[in-house]
Design brief:
The protein is an alpha/beta fold. Strand 7, helix 5 and strand 8 form a beta-alpha-beta unit. The longest helix is centred in the middle third of the chain and has 32 residues. The termini are far apart.
Length: about 425
């Protein structure tokens, strides 16, 4: 089939390359010309797609990258994987709307459009379908097919591959579901059909809200345990010996990426719109995680004070800047807030992350260095925010004068765990 994947980021590029590998003719569409130029030259900026894989489908002519909307004409199926950010606590679906208008003017009878971008329940039928119908002059469900299939990307995961992660699929009617399921059956090992887009949209938000709430719970317990003199890590390990009724989550400096800080807020926003009441669990969880970077800074400041070192003028090395272990993604990472708070207190803050290119770390507003013996020895304190496999943990333990370990990976007289 002629496949369009609109949006060539962390979700869209892996899908586009995989679709090309299984035999489809794929156009990866993105309005970012810099991305298109990188992709056309065979350079991948997404960790789950190695550049040799990208070059292989480019060389076969199975994949092309384009910012030209006219290149989308004649598609059999188009998948929307554009961003859905929050703007002052309100879902911003302008990217979805713009993409729908672009696809609608090139929509032909028999084609299908699938939304993968995470959003609130009802978006597919209440927003996407009307735009497609208006711009195409066709009738959804009769002339063309529509559905929702939430992304389940796990950047850097070695346990679950892209194609082995079960894929939820839905359609606005039976014909839509059959066509969309058939497409994804050729890409994923397992597809899981549900009765409609609202179920699939809600399921995605449940998945991420579940994680957010439980991470927030252990983060709050970590703050409580610290004031009680209890080792929260030992207590969690002890609780995890129960073979039923418990799932192990661990504390950290906060959550990041698109999924956890943003997606559950879609559910809370929709609850306010439809029911006139907030989702109290979601809003409490968001609040707890917003406070975690400040708690990390408070703990570090207290430790420096005990050593007779004022935070103003101290040299702090932040280790691991991405929001997820072994990933390259800095979106919504709590490291940015930690760096901001320490800088405001007058600290000389530097960051080290072997997975992050210097050009991608501009938003952190701190210089990037390597976690060398010299850098570790020169700092007054190091903070292990993310325990990437590429870090030499033994060197950090041995060299840094003091380490606040937010991941419970280090030990020694100079190490304090979160």
């Amino acid at each position: 089939m002629n496949v369009v994947v609109a949006g060539q980021g962390y979700v869209g590029l892996p899908l586009a390359v995989r679709a090309a590998e299984v035999g489809h003719h794929v156009t990866g569409y993105d309005v970012d010309l810099h991305r298109i130029n990188q992709l056309t030259s065979g350079e991948s900026y997404v960790e789950d797609v190695a550049s040799p894989r990208l070059r292989a489908v480019l060389d076969r002519g199975a994949y092309r990258a384009s910012a030209d909307a006219d290149a989308l004409a004649g598609f059999d199926i188009a998948v929307i994987t554009v961003p859905t950010p929050l703007r002052e606590g309100v879902p911003d679906l302008s990217y979805v709307e713009a993409c729908a208008r672009t696809l609608g003017t090139r929509l032909r009878p028999g084609a299908a459009v699938v939304l993968e971008s995470t959003t609130y329940p009802g978006t597919t039928e209440e927003l996407l379908v009307p735009i497609l119908e208006q711009t195409s002059g066709l009738e959804a469900g009769h002339d063309f097919l529509v559905g929702f299939s939430p992304e389940r990307i796990a950047p850097g995961s070695t346990r679950w591959s892209f194609e082995d992660t079960p894929k939820l699929v839905s359609g606005i009617n039976g014909r839509s579901l059959d066509a969309i399921k058939g497409f994804y059956d050729g890409i994923f090992t397992t597809t899981v059909p549900v009765t409609g887009p609202r179920v699939a949209e809600t399921a995605k938000l449940i998945e991420n809200t579940f994680r957010l709430v439980n991470i927030s719970l252990v983060n709050e317990l970590a703050m409580l345990a610290g004031s009680l003199g209890v080792d929260i890590w030992e207590a969690i390990d002890a609780a995890a010996t129960k073979p039923f009724g418990f799932m192990r989550f661990t504390p950290g400096p906060g959550v990041g990426g698109h999924c956890l800080p943003i997606d559950p807020v879609f559910l809370s926003w929709k609850a306010r719109q439809e029911a006139g009441a907030p989702s109290r669990f979601v809003e409490l969880a968001v609040d707890v995680n917003h406070r975690m970077p400040g708690y990390v800074v408070d703990r570090l400041t207290a430790a420096l004070r005990r050593k007779g070192i004022p935070v103003d003028g101290s040299r702090i090395l932040l280790l691991g800047l991405t929001y997820k272990i072994n990933a390259t993604d800095l979106r919504e990472s709590p490291s940015a807030r930690v760096a901001e708070l320490l800088t405001a207190l007058g600290a000389d803050v530097r960051g080290a992350d072997p997975n992050v290119e210097h050009r991608n770390a501009a938003d952190l507003h701190v210089p990037l260095v390597d976690a060398t013996t010299e850098q570790l020895a020169a700092c007054d304190a190091a903070v292990l925010l993310m325990d990437h496999a590429r870090f030499d943990l033994a060197l950090i333990e041995k060299t840094a004068p003091y380490v606040l370990d937010c991941r419970n990976r280090l030990s020694g007289p100079n190490v304090e765990t979160l």
